[in-house]
User: What shape does this take?
Amino acid sequence: MTLSSLSRRLPLLIGLSAIALMPALPAAAQPSAASAAPAPLSSLVAKVDIPYEEFTLKNGLRVIVHTDRKAPVVAVSVWYHVGSRYEPAGKTGFAHLFEHLMFYGSENADGPFFGRLEDIGATDWNGTTWFDRTNYFETVPTGALDRALFLESDRMGHLLGAVTQVKLDTQRGVVQNEKRMGENEPYGLVEYAQLAALMPEGHPYRHSTIGSMADLNAASLADVQMWFKTHYGPNNAVLVLAGDIDAATAKAKVEKWFGNIPAGPAPQDVDASVPTLAKDAEVMMHDNVAATRLYRNWVVPGVNSADLPQLDLALAVFGGLGSSRLDNALVRDEKVAVGVKASVQPFEKLSLAEITVDVKPGVDPVAVGKRLDQLLADYLTNGPSADEVQRAATRQLSGTIGGLEKVGGFTGKAVTLAEGAVYSDDPAKYKKDLAIYAAATPQSVAAAARKWLGRPVLRLTVAPGERSAADNALAGNVKAEGATHQPAHFRDPAASAPAAATPPTPTRIAEPPIEPVKDLDFPDVEHATLKNGIPVVFARRDAVPTVRVSVAFDAGNAADDKAKLGTAGLTAALLDEGTTTRSSIEIAEEQERLGAAISAANSMDSTTVGLFALKPNLDASLGLLADVIRNPAFRPEEVERLRGQVLTRIAAEKTEPMAIAQRMLPPLLYGQAHPYGIPFTGSGTESGVKAVTRADLTAFHDAWMRPDNATIFVAGDTTLAEMMPLLEKRFGDWKAPAAQKGTKLFRMDRMMRPSRIVLIDKPQSPQSLILAGVLTNKAGTDNPVTLLTANEVLGGSTTSRLTMDLRETKGWAYGAGTALPGVKETIPLLVYAPVQTDKTGESIIAARQDVKDYLTTKGTTQAERDQTINSQILSLPGSFETSSELLGAMMRNHLIGRPDDYYETLPKTYRAMTPADMDKAARESINPDNLIWVVVGDVKQVRPQLDAVGLPVEMGTLAD
Assistant: This one.
């Protein structure tokens, strides 16, 4: 439901990084004798503290300030207490549409807001809309704080003079493409059906935040003006500043920039009761999905109910933990499901409780549904154990502590304080919630579960098949016979729009300059070596009491067995499914007790096993990590269970537009012989996964996951002196096996790869997914920083040529751009655009022209160079705020052979770069005439458009 309008860098999830196979875990077991006593929950709660001061301006703006000097950055977070539940009938989707308009200029700062954010090096910036609120946030260098406050105040107080019909029409198209993109995914219509079934007519939470096409089409400039005047006054907002700032400085700055904005009308709440179904409801849907998914849904109380944390724990025990009841019963023991989940999605006035079960293909969904209901009934009768409650609470506390390492973003300190203030009138609400989690008992958790999950339930099933007209109509897209719900119209769509008021005379306010921003001071990186030769790379980050460890092996998907593609992924997925001394359930439960998280994944070039640990539990957590890495059992029953999950995942990928393209494009670019010429998803092929034996898995582990092929990276609240004895204890006696160490052979075949369009049919697609690629002449080890910088101009940033053309000028796509994935060997240029179906051909033509123009006659302008360089330099201090970001940078430097101080040297490199340098790097590396285009869409609608493109068109299929 989070509807993010923008992100600073194109979220091009091309799968060249980690895959995330989520292995399920088996039935409960007694704690391992090797487990150390974890830190008590009370001590964890005591470590969670966000000191703050607050004040309120005369116009009603509430300001909350938290000081954190660990980095020279400040998080700015503005929350308006208005969301989609405030929308009148016929205005569905308007809160989110308005959020988009807030990014397109105000009276004293016209033009794209995100371009101005990039100018000042903003990181972690976005805007989101939910039922209850709309928020806008960014983290900026301390020297750019006045500029950020100016920008936020100008759109709060001086927006309407800059809103035009052209902007409204463009953003309407962008939002409608965002809606199509969501609905084009498997299970993409479920939310509409859930809300329609769970909420009575007229309920404020009944309609989706994204809205209906008809209502979006009906939105007028008069609507924009009224929404702004009604809901966007300072007295309906909370501003949080967190980071390199103190209350006295904040008060002076906020008063300067926001003090002259007049208050709006007194906010009027829209109340919403928690509805209960009169009786159990059954809904059947069909979709292009690989596995039947069973849903169980209830409406439960909102964030201010003391029952909600208890209910959250109840659902975690039942289906959220790695050792959950559902995992144990349905996935591991009975093997009738390939995935389960249970969680609460919290909102202000109510929340949504959800349980899902993905039925194993070939198993009767009806029987699994009955078994699910039986397990739930038994759970409600008998409740959880004390150990289960403690593990669930520890996981919650651990996650909260880890999230607070950031000052901004989606999980940091600013959002935590703002959410408490907006929803609960208490910035410290998080403390009350954590206290409830820590004090929970089996009795209190069981009572909340019985009270709320014992009520009538919505049983919704999505089975493989064609989407019905009625289901499409629920999304507000089409009218259809049999559709029981239609969007209400605020006004007749056929009637002329009401006249907009004359915009106010602009108030002229000068944009403040950027104060000097110091170049990045990258944390000191230290090196050591274990007695068996494993290198250790360390950097300190002490903002929160956590430590991250990553053991990296020179393997990855590029090391996969070409005859049995998927061996690498299956090996990684099985690491935490049992060792020679621990069962998978013991591994899962021990992680939960320690508040630790272990994950294994493959990027294209590396296999990594990562650990997130609470500092008090570090030694025991490292013991678990070492056992998982060194002693995987690969038990036959676990191999077969995980094989089934991976095969289902591959089948699911063949229903997902991006995954389809990710599977099709790589062999076309690299050829079958090259290590990168495999599905970018990392899951392998159906035939390969079916053919893998236990002996293959053991052989892969012995060849690649061994001490003479490993490097250990550490970042967090510790020292190298503290870490070395702990690492020696767990890894120092690890000896390489007798098997030969693995090697990769990077070679390209001599096959011609002519530019063409490969069209893959996805019937009923409301959108087409375009993914094109061409190999550059650069490898990651070349460290082509000038080429990477040029790509920011072409398609790598939100103000890039391609993004501005397809999204902002034409309105045909929600997001579009280019990427140069960070692989070690030959780098591909990838062009990405999910576009509305009727503009598929024109979008390819436009994208080809944009790329060609940039690489020939319309190279980098001085303004583009300056904005890109400013953005790159100023964003560096905010790019390594957390131990996770620091760890990633250290690993990247190691992978491609860069020095430890590489990021500190970047500003000098950037400042020396000229537009001519950027053009030269791009033109020498990229041949646009060789781009191969993969299009995933409805062939009946798309094929007739492609003749005009002027490229050969062939049909593609994903046989394997």
About this structure: Residues 165-183 form the longest helix (19 residues). The CA atoms of residues 302 and 351 lie 5 Å apart. The first strand starts at residue 53 and ends at 56. The chain has 33 helices and 25 strands.
